[in-house]
Amino acid sequence: EGPGRIVPTPESRSREAFDRAELLYRQARFKDALGAYNEALGHRRHPALLFNIAQCHRQLGDFPKALFFYKLFLSELPEASNRVEVETRIREMDQKAAAEAREAAKRGRLTVSSTPPGAEIYLDSVTGAPVGRTPAVLSVKPGQHLIVLRKPGYREVQSTVDVRDGRIAIVT
After folding, report:
1. Beta carbons within 10 angstroms of residue 54's beta carbon
2. What is the tens place of the pLDDT at every residue in 37-96?
3. What is the average pLDDT across 121-131?
4. Would the pTM count as exceeding 0.90?
5. Is the pLDDT of residue 3 over 80?
6. Angular region, 138: left φ>0, alpha ψ -120 to 50, beta rest
7. Are 32 and 39 a contacting pair, CB within 8 Å?
């Protein structure tokens, strides 16, 4: 910070992150845009950034977070010129979040454990990538599922389990 050196201000850092976020959003890189909008918000609070963050969450399908940021935007800028659009988005996100909650309530949970812990869990497949490692709790659609557990040095275990709406099934 010697003579003649330009020190970026919070406003200029926010603007730089905002410009990057706008480009990423136009490229449909919503997760990256979200990070850049959050960075801009960290340098300088501005209600428009809250709207942009909500838009990213909506595009990413995270309706509860989109709903939160749309509402926060209107609470900070009640006279927004796009208020009617935002209120429409709020109703839309509220409906989608409620529908997701209803669907989640229909899903069952599968608790999978092993001795020793750390076995790879395969769900409805004996190949591909594992869905996790034991111990784990998985959210699954109701119905019958194939569970495969693998751990180097141990024998593979396969089991079928029937998971019911909103219930917990246990595989040990």
Report:
1. 26
2. 999 999 999 999 999 999 999 999 999 999 999 999 999 999 999 999 999 999 999 999
3. 93
4. no
5. no
6. beta
7. no
Dihedral sign of CA atoms 130, 131, 137, 140 in order: negative
- Please give the backbone phi and psi of residue 109, each rounded to the nearest 5 degrees, phi first: -120, 145
Task: Give the residue, 126 or 55, on which the prediction is more confident.
Answer: 55
85: left (phi over 0), alpha (psi -120 to 50) or beta: alpha
User: How far apart (Å, rounded) are the C-alpha atoms in residues 9 and 14?
Assistant: 8
- 68 vs 50: CA distance, rounded Å: 10
| Strand 120-123 with 132-133, pairing | antiparallel
Tell me the residue length of the chain. Answer: 172
Tell me whether strands 157-163 and 136-140 are parallel, antiparallel or unpaired.
unpaired
3-state helix, strand, coil in the chain (%, to 5): 50, 20, 30
What type of residue sits at position 57? H
DSSP of 11-32 = HHHHHHHHHHHHHHHHTT-HHH
Q: Which residues pair with 69 in a beta bridge?
A: none
Q: For the chain, how far is it from start to end, CA to CA, in angstroms? A: 62
| Per-residue model confidence (pLDDT) at position 2 | 55
Residue 61 dihedral angles phi and psi, to the nearest 5°: 80, 15
